[in-house]
Amino acid sequence: MVGLPINVTYTDRNAIIKRVRETNIFLADAKKIQFALSVYQSLELAVGLV
């Protein structure tokens, strides 16, 4: 199993897609490969305290 953190502030979906493409991780040649995306939003940002 391999992981690759991409820490980036969300501005729009295309910016995230660009960052993933820059890693070339999607070019991995393996059977039954799976990808996952996780998003974290701080509570302060969620309630507008920042």
Describe it:
The protein has 2 helices and no strands. The chain has helices at 13-23, 43-46. The protein has a domain at 13-46. By secondary structure, the chain is mainly alpha-helical. The longest helix is centred in the middle third of the chain and has 11 residues, at 13-23.
What key attributes describe this structure?
mainly alpha, 0% strand, 50 residues, 2 helices, 30% helix, single chain
Largest sheet: none
Q: How many E strands?
A: 0
**What is the straight-line distance between the termini?**
36 Å
How would you describe the shape? Answer: elongated
C-alpha Rg (nearest Å): 14 Å
Uncertain stretches? none
Proportion of residues in helical segments:
25-40%
Give average pLDDT, whole number. Answer: 78
Approximately what portion of the residues adopt beta-strand conformation? under 5%
Alpha-beta content class = mainly alpha
Q: Could you state the order of secondary-structure elements as H and E?
A: HH
State the helix count. Answer: 2
